[in-house]
């Protein structure tokens, strides 16, 4: 719950109390989505709402009203914030299955676009398809690789199978198409939007197995999350070519995605 520090925080559309925050923060059972808001709009709003609804049905056995979530976000943004980093967390509110919706509003953020260095770690998230709170291993390895001078942890499984970054998706270019690892991952909203944009363009995109032993054979690699897209320059001690033309193409594709009013 580190994102609560310095953030505007509301629970169920109301300014919250310390007791209420404590009740939802310490439980650790819940899910969330993260988005960048610009001018009161967000890319892939319907995808964010579908993610929240699907996770809520799986974790709590009930639908989550997308219009209600939108109202909570608008209320937290109020009239004074047009650009922001917003997270919508959903927690168990009581033992009867009711949920609480916590919205945090922080200053906007973007990926710098600078090529990133990734350090592989032997870790895969459990229940990887749900964006959820409280994953100790994910946070631990992010901190560990940062202390070693890397930008992101690359999560890997048995036999060096590549899955995802700690807070990113990763995609490789094999010279012909973009390859998203088909290991269990959280399908990020930016990943989903890019796959959709790529499906109508000249650059093929597919899912397939990727192993650490072969990352040096790829022509380029990129990480994506709610803050954008960045090329990868290094995985462990393997240098990855930075394809500036392809970087620009992906940025243009992502930039062509429309913004939805919250």
From TrEMBL:
GO MF entries: catalytic activity
SUPFAM superfamilies xref list: D-aminoacid aminotransferase-like PLP-dependent enzymes (SSF56752)
Pfam families: Aminotran_4
Signal sequence interval, chain numbering: none
Lineage top rank: taxon: Bacteria
NCBIfam families: PRK09266.1
Protein name: Class IV aminotransferase
Native organism: Embleya hyalina
């Amino acid at each position: 719950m580190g994102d609560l520090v310095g953030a505007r925080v509301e629970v169920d559309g109301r300014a919250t109390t310390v007791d209420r925050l404590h009740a939802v923060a310490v439980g650790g059972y819940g899910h969330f989505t993260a988005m960048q808001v610009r001018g009161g709009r967000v890319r892939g709003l319907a995808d964010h709402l579908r993610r929240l609804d699907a996770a809520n049905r799986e974790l709590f056995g009930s639908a989550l009203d997308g219009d209600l979530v939108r109202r909570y976000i608008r209320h937290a943004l109020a009239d004074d914030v047009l650009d922001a980093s917003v997270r919508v967390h959903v927690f168990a509110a009581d033992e009867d299955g009711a949920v609480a919706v916590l919205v945090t509003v922080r200053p906007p953020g973007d990926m710098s676009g600078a090529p990133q260095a990734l350090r592989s770690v032997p870790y895969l998230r459990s229940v990887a398809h749900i964006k959820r709170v409280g994953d100790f291993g994910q946070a631990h390895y992010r901190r560990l690789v940062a202390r070693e001078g890397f930008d992101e942890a690359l999560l890997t499984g048995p036999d060096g199978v590549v899955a995802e970054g700690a807070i990113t998706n990763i995609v490789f270019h094999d010279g012909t198409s973009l390859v998203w690892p088909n290991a269990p991952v959280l399908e990020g909203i930016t990943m989903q939007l890019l796959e959709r944009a790529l499906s109508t363009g000249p650059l093929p995109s597919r899912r397939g197995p990727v192993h650490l032993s072969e990352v040096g054979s790829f022509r380029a690699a990129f990480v994506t999350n709610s803050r954008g897209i960045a090329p990868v320059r290094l995985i462990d001690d393997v240098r990855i070519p930075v394809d500036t033309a392809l970087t620009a193409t992906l940025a243009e594709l992502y930039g062509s995605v429309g913004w939805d009013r919250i």
